[in-house]
Each structure stands twice: as C-alpha cells, then as structure tokens.
Amino acid sequence: MSQSHAPYYFVPEPSRYPIFGSVALLLMGMGAACWMNGVNAGPYMVAGGFAILIYMLFGWFGQVVGESEGGKYNQRVDVSFRWSMGWFIFSEVMFFAAFFGALFYVRVLSVPDLAGLESRTLLWNGFTPAWPSAGPGFSEAFTPMGAWGIPAINTLLLLTSGATLTWAHWGLVNGNRGQLKLGLLLTILLGAVFLCLQVYEYVHAYHELNLKLTTGIYGSTFFMLTGFHGFHVTLGATMLIVILCRVMRGHFTADHHFAFEAVAWYWHFVDVVWLGLFVVVYWL
Amino acid sequence: MSSISHDHAHGHGHDDHGHHPTGLMRWITTTNHKDIGTMYLIFAFTMFIVGGLLAWGIRAELMYPGMQLWDPERFNSFTTMHGLIMVFGAIMPAFVGFANWQIPLMIGASDMAFARMNNWSFWLLPVAAILLVTSFFLPGGAPAAGWTLYAPLSVQQGMSMDFTIFAIHIMGASSIMGSINIIVTILNMRAPGMTLMKMPLFVWTWLITAYLLIAVMPVLAGAVTMILTDRHFGTSFFNAAGGGDPVLYQHVFCFFGHPEVYIMILPAFGIISQIIPTFARKPLFGYASMVYATASIAILSFIVWAHHMFVVGMPAAGLLFFMYATMLIAVPTGVKVFNWVATMWRGSMTFETPMLFAVGFIFVFTMGGFTGLICAIMPIDIQIQDTYYVVAHFHYVLVAGSLFALFAGTYYWLPKWTGHMYSETLGKLHFWASIIFFNITFFPMHFLGLAGMPRRIPDYATQFADFNFIASIGAFGFGLSQLIFLIAVVKCAKGGPKATAQVWEGADGLEWTVPSPAPYHTFEEPPHVK
Fold it and tell me: Which of B166, B236, B252 to mutate to test the interface with A (most CBs of A within 10 A)?
C-alpha cells in the first residue's frame, strides 16, 4: 500500500447524529399517527421531531462536507458515494413504480371490470368505464386536467433546467465558476417556477375543475403521483440550493465534486419521472 | 457483549484519537461494524422472544376447541403482530446482524462502507419496534388485519394501523440504508485479489438479497402509503365505488411479498453454504452454479407474486403463468440442495452443532420446499388456500429454514465473536429439542390444513382437536427449547475454552485468519487474496 499515513479507507468516529435522527423519526411517526386520529399532542410531536431532524441533517451533512473538504475522502470513498447514490435513486424509481403500477392497474383492469357484465347488472347499473373515471359511486361532475396548458409548460421548464444544470457542470469542469453559479441559479429558478405553476394548477383543479384528492381513483392517482413528484422536486431544489451555497464558499474542484454530480443525477431522475407523468397522467 | 475486545493496540496506523465513548453511549454512537452487528443480533433475539410469546398466545387459544382465553379480535391481533414482529423484527434484523459482523471480515474490509449510516440503520429498528408494540395499548388494540395488512380490513381498523404503517416506513428506510451499505461494501471494499467469483457464498447471497431489498421495500412503502391516504385523506385506491380495487393492494403487496420471502431465505442459503464445506472438509460442490442459482431465484421472485392470489380472481392465462413461473423456482432451489448433498458426499464429516443445524436445515427446509411446490399447483391451492396447510408450509421454510440457519450460523461464528467455544452439550441439546418440537408443532398442521381447518380463526370444529393439542404441546416445547440457546450463548460470551483463530479444523476464509475474538478493528490494511 502506497499511503503511509492516510487510512486505506476512511472510517468515521463514533457519531451522535444517528440517534438524533431516530428520535426525530419516532416523534414524527408517532405524532403523525396521533394527529390523523385527532390527538391534540400530534402536531406538536411532528413539529418537535421535524426540528430535531433539521438539526440532525445540518449537523450530519455539515460533518460530511467538512470531512470531504478536509481531504479525508480518497478515490475509494468517492466510488462508494457513486454506487450508493445510484442505488438510492433505484429505490426511488421503485417507489414511483408502485404508484405508476397502481395507475396502470386501475386503467387497464379495475375500472373496465367495474363495467363488466356481472358488475354492471348486479352492482353499478349504467356505469361506463371511460378514463378518466372517478368510479361508479362518484356522482359529482369534474373536469380532468388537460395536458397542453400548464403541464406542457412545466415539461419545457424541467427539460430546460436539465440543460442549464449540465451547462453549470461544464462550467465546473472547465474552471469557469461564473458559468457554474449562473447555471445553478437558473436551474433553481426554473425548479421554483415549476413548483409555483404546480401549486397554481392544484388551486385551479380544486376551485374550478372540482378535481380533488377525493375525486375517486382519477383524483387519487393524479394527486398522489404529481404530489410525490412535486415533493421530490422540492427536495431536489433544496439540495441544489445547498450546492450553490457550497459553490459560493469556494467548494468543489474540477476533479472532486461528487456532491454536485449526485444532486445532478437526482435532478435528472426527477426530470425523467415527470416525463412519465406527463405522458401517462396528463396526456394519454 | 462485554467480551468483545476493545483493544486499540491491534489497530496500527489507525487515526482514531482514543476518546471513544464508553458505557451506553458506546453502543448509541458506535460506527464499528462488530458493535452494530452485535446490537442487531441482540435486538433480533429480543423481538424473537416477543414474537414467540405471541405465538404461545395463539397456540394456547388453539389448544382446545371453543373460546378459551382471548376474544377473536385479540386473537387476530396476535397472529398479525406475530407475523410482523417475526418477519421485520426477528428474521430480517438477525440476517443483517450476520452481514454486519461477517461481510467485512470475509472480504477483508476494515468496516462497512458507510459506518455512520450503518449506525442509523440499526437505531431506526428500536423506533419501529416501539411503534409496533405500542399499538397493543392503543384504543382498539393492535392491528388485526393479518401481517399482510390486506385492504379493506386495514383501511377500516383503529389508530394502531397508523402506528404500524409508520413503523413499516421506518423499517423500510432502515432496510434500504442497510442494503445500500451492504452492496457498496461488497462492490467497493473487497481486498485486492478478492474477485467476485472468489467471494464466500454468504457474501454473494447477501449481495443479491440487498438488491432485492432495495427493489421491493419502496414498493411496500408505496402500498402502505396508499392505505394511509385511503384511511385519512379520502383517496380511492382500494375502494371499488371510487374506481379502485381492494385486489390492487394484494398485487402491490405481493410484488413486495414474494421477493421478501427470498430476502429471508437467501442469506440462510449463504450460511449453510459456508458451514457444510467446513464440516465435510471439502470445498463447496458447484460454487459457480450456486451463484447462478441464487441470482435465478432472485430474478424469478419478481414474476411469481400472484401465486398468493389464486383464489382472488384472475384471467386463466394469468393463473397458468404464475403457476408455471412458480414451479420454475424449484429448479435453482434443487440445484442448491443437490450441491449441498454433493458437498457432503464422501466428505470426512463431523457433526458439531452448526453442522447438525445445517443438515437439519437441508432435511426440513426441503420438506417446506416440497409443500411450497404443492401450494404452487393452482388447482390444489384453491383447496388449501388459507388453511393450516399453508401455515405448515411457510413455517417449514421460515422456522426450519431461516431460523435454523441463523442458529447454525450463530454456533458457527460465535467462537470467532467471543473468543470462547460454546458448550457442545448445550448446543446439541438445543438442536435436538428444537427439531423435535418443531416437527411436533408443525407437522400435524399439514393434516389439519388438508382436512380443511382455516387459518387466523380462534376456534375450530371438534374433529381438529387432537392435532391442535399436539401442535400446542410442540409450540410450548419449542419456545422453552430456545432458553437453551440463550443460556448457551450467554455462557459462551462470559467464558469457556479458548477458541483458536481457525476455530474449526476444516474452516477456510479470511475471517479465520484473524484472532478469536476478532479484534475491534480488523483489516485496516487489506490482506492480499491469492
């Protein structure tokens, strides 16, 4: 082994942060369950748990950033981070797959089945199974969300943000810090505009289209899929802001910037999920 | 746990600064894979006792026909919580404990790839356990929808269901972080020369298991999230009036559920594949075919889920596809059993406790495999769906399979962990008591199931009385037998004959090159594997 003093692989000191994270999730899980069942303490437990979680995230990530800038991470540790981010994104893909699978299942199987011969004659007289459907037991009229208004604009915004992020990466690799900062800023702004339009779309759906989370299976799949996606965009934008702050402080070099790349991978993943949503939730 | 060496003198060139917390804080803040592995194993055994007490509650009620001890709701919550606790609290964490202890030792790595995250993966489990066990004391009692939490039952139950849902989310987060850690450790931290096809089979099986976990735990998270929103936020995923379908839950859950059973058995295959060659004093027969068989089982596990749903309603083409795909799994599993037997063939075998459990595993697990094949045949499954035949089947693969492999692995590596030999007398007593009482408990259930006794019902017709009585006697005996295990392990941790580095005459692999007990830090400079 050529290294004389540096360890072959960096193993961190004992850490207090994980137990803070565990307490935070205990409070949040228990608090949310209490809240949903009308127990008064619920919201306070969630708030307390969330505060601890934020403290833990700041502390833990701060420590990791410090170790990274302190040169403790060699090439081998860098490879570990790359593998782990890839597998984490794979787990996220599978989470979305569950909800996409539910959407395909109801569109292809359960809604047509409800208009099958037995169901129609015995249970749901006169139900026609055209998608979008809120099911045979849902009587209010609603308007489904069209694809070619805000959703199409949002598609353009996200695709553009992918391009600006790659442009920022080129800036980083070529040592052009101005291009890096501008590209990151543009990406964050595009993400923020996307989220604002998404909020506007939800308000529009609730007030003018009578399309709600409770609007049968169409409302369920529409809001859960786009909602979880929006949540991921929020997370991705938050991570981009952290990266921008680190860039402002002079972190990252042309050959040592995996945090930037990890967030970029995540952002592109969120982008691809949106394309799937646009095609099967809004368009088809 | 006190016997684990905390000696820093072994760790040359290590840049720890010697201010490690002691006492309880050592265990709360530790980033050491051996500490964390030990905690996983202690946690798993604790939950095993809790789940076992629930099993006793079930068997006490079923000892005689008629209603004896619990009202039906309480009985159902016992079966539900027994399943959830044994699957998520006992078997899975125990295997992760083995992974933590053994994988770095077996591939020549200094620790897990992400030592801090490793700590969090463990410390999320007590949180989830608190949420699960608390649910017994909530209004309405613990969840009673069965461990599968099928809709619409799970949509209708009290607030304990919400506690369970969040517990599952937290356990899922723990499993995903743990699995990422294991995969990255295996892919990135092997000692120079340790190529993939030189890895011990236990490491291979965990690599594939971790892949399965990352693929399906998020799907389970999605399934229980849909239950949560159906319960509280008015969505209609499992509500036919809104265009959804309760069967949708079964599809999403079983897409998780079938890989999950391989998550619980593949590491067991790995442990058995380490033990048989050691005590047969021959290399494993057909190493490469073992690796390919494990991978085949994992891939097939994604396309067989609806065999849990043969009576739910499916097109005939679907029934046939899932039946044949399921039966196909018998091929790679058969390869494994053949290879284990071929390894023993003409070996110079001795039967210390790990080998007894391993051979017992092959015998009893194979019976569970055969009943699995019978359940896979759709026309037969329509008869035995939701009967005690199914209960017998999955306890043959999960108790005699996963649990016996865990016992085998514990006796096998305990001398390496503690530095002492365990009492062979106690070990053998534990084995014989376990395998005899196990069969007394579960063998009669085959007959009960074939005769039509339904599962998850607290009462039964009087013609089932005799076999139920026998099964309950067996269950009480099986539970008590586990105290022998506890005594054997505690005795071994406290003292006993000194173990050598190699421990077993026929043992081969990197973990046997470090002293017993394994020093607190091992392989800080990676060994070279020829």
Answer: B236
Cross-chain Cβ contact B243/A114 below 8 Å:
yes
Considering only the beta carbons, identify the residue of A18, A99, A217 that sits closest to B116. Answer: A18
Q: How many CB pairs under 8 A join A and B?
A: 231
- Higher pLDDT: A284 or B105? It is B105
B414-426 per-position pLDDT tens digit: 999 999 999 999 9
Helix (H, G, I), strand (E, B) or coil at A253: strand
Query: How far apart are the C-alpha atoms of B141 and B157, rounded to whole Å?
Result: 10
- Other Cβ atoms within 10 Å of A140 Cβ, number: 10
- The dihedral sign for the CA sequence B518, A18, B133, B441: negative
* B260 part of the active site: yes
B237 to each of A110, B147, B457, how far by Cα in Å? 10, 20, 28
Identified catalytic residue from B308, B393, B416, B521: B308
Cα–Cα distance for residue pair B414/B432, rounded to 1 Å: 19
CB within 8 Å of chain B, chain A residues 85-114: 87-88, 90-92, 94-95, 97-99, 101-102, 105-106, 109-111, 113-114
In this structure, which amino acid lies at residue B524? Answer: E
pLDDT in tens, B383-399: 999 999 999 999 999 99
- DSSP annotation of B16: -
Residues 457-486 of chain B with CB under 8 A from chain A are none
Under 8 Å CB-to-CB from B175, ≥6 apart: which residues? B92, B96, B121, B213, B217
Q: Cβ contacts of residue A40 below 8 Å, gap of 6+?
A: none
pLDDT mean values, one per 10 residues, chain A (284 residues): 64 94 97 95 97 97 94 92 97 97 95 81 82 89 92 97 97 96 98 98 96 95 97 97 96 94 97 96 93
Stretch (H or E) spanning A98: helix A75-105
- Express each pLDDT in B285-325 by its tens digit: 999 999 999 999 999 999 999 999 999 988 899 999 999 99
Confidence of residue B20 (pLDDT cuts 50, 70, 90): confident
Question: Per residue in B132-182, pLDDT tens?
Answer: 999 999 998 999 999 999 999 999 999 999 999 999 999 999 999 999 999
Instruction: Quote the DSSP letter at residue A249.
Output: T
B-chain CB neighbours of A72 within 8 Å are none
- For chain B, domain boundaries: 27-513
Closest residue in chain B to residue A83, using alpha carbons only: B184
Tell me the one-letter amino acid at B54.
L
| B525's tokens | 């400079």
B27-513: CATH, from 3.40.50.20, 3.30.530.20, 2.60.40.290, 1.20.210.10:
1.20.210.10
Is the separation of the CB atoms in B191 and B529 below 8 Å?
yes
Show residues of chain B in contact with A14, CB under 8 Å: 20-21, 25-26, 29-31
CB-CB under 8 Å, B235 with A219: yes
Lowest mean pLDDT among B53-57, B140-144, B186-190, B271-275: B140-144
The shortest CB-CB distance from B214 to any of A1, A87, A110 is to A87
**Choice among B258, B282, B395, B430 that is catalytic:** B258
Annotated catalytic residue B508: no
The three-state secondary structure class of A52 is helix
Chain B partners within 8 Å of A23 (Cβ): 127
Catalytic-role residue among B33, B307, B420, B430: B307
| pLDDT for B401 beyond 60 | yes
Residue B121 in tokens: 């993966």
Cα separation, B487 vs A112, in Å, equals 60
DSSP state of B497: S
